[in-house]
């Protein structure tokens, strides 16, 4: 149980041994409040309420701010994203590249609905976007992605399609080759593990989730490490991301 006392500037939380009290502005209180906010947002479908340059984007805005920081620092030649949906995230990455004057985006989805395809193809940044339809782990689809790339391309990969452990692990194995050294492959939506019991969840999500796939992948590879992106600017006291993508960023180290 959480109790917020704004007048006293305190957060109280029940623990096994009693009650912990944290100043409301402490990192511990911010963490607990963020967990509660994320859970409330999950139940309320908060992430289904945003668009980017006219296209619905199914992301927590905090995650988009952080990935923008990563993209600007890494300056990849290409972002490969699995999971297009309405196209908002593809447009987001392409619009950053447009502003940066470099980079392009390859999107993969098992089903690109005609109205979504039309809207993406008609968009101001469509010249930077290629779309491939099919399951992201289908060998022919992965070959089509490969054909979109030039030999010297430095890639960054974002996995936001089917979030089962098996599917994400298969994606990690198939798309790792497109990630440049010091760039990332990002396994989105590990939040699933944290919200089990909430509406639209399944008890299996405790283990059947992208965070488990990341652990499996790391156990079989020595060329990637799990590494939180560092905030390039931070004059506050919070150093943890508020995120739908916990334990998601795998940096290629060789
Ligand atoms: C969470 S949505 C993607 C949201 C999008 N990235 C955004 O930020 O707006 C997941 C998408 O993955 C697609 N998908 C599901 N299974 C897939 C698979 N096996 N291969 C490729 N895409 C898949 C769905 O069709 C859906 O459009």
Descriptive report:
The protein has about 250 residues and is α/β, with parallel strands linked by helices. It has 2 domains: about 1-45, no CATH class; about 50-250, Vaccinia Virus protein VP39 (Rossmann fold). It is about 35% helix and about 20% strand. The chain contains 7 helices and 12 strands. The chain has helices at about 25-45, 60-75, 90-100, 115-120, 140-145, 165-175, 210-220; strands spanning about 1-5, 10-15, 20-25, 50, 55, 80, 105-110, 130-135, 155-160, 185, 225, 250. The strands form 3 sheets. It has a 7-stranded mixed beta sheet with strand order 8-7-6-9-10-12-11, with helices on both faces. Helix 2 (about 60-75) packs parallel to helix 3 (about 90-100) and helix 6 (about 165-175) packs across helix 7 (about 210-220). The termini are far apart. The model has no long low-confidence stretch (mean pLDDT about 100).
